[in-house]
Amino acid sequence: MQKNGRDEMLIETKNLADVAIIITKAAIARKESIGCHFIEN
């Protein structure tokens, strides 16, 4: 299979999207846990 710049760019874009999803999920989880913490206090 021949690699060209476009295939590599697609792979890189998908990797960045995966990282963005992980960061977003972590941020949401953290926000919810901070929110619960404030409610408890």
Automatic annotation (TrEMBL):
GO terms for molecular function: oxidoreductase activity. Residues 8-39 form the Fumarate reductase/succinate dehydrogenase flavoprotein-like C-terminal domain. It holds the Pfam family Succ_DH_flav_C. InterPro entries: Fum_R/Succ_DH_flav-like_C_sf (IPR037099), Fum_Rdtase/Succ_DH_flav-like_C (IPR015939). SUPFAM superfamilies: Succinate dehydrogenase/fumarate reductase flavoprotein C-terminal domain. It comes from the Bacteria. This is Fumarate reductase/succinate dehydrogenase flavoprotein-like C-terminal domain-containing protein. It comes from Candidatus Magasanikbacteria bacterium CG_4_10_14_0_2_um_filter_41_31.
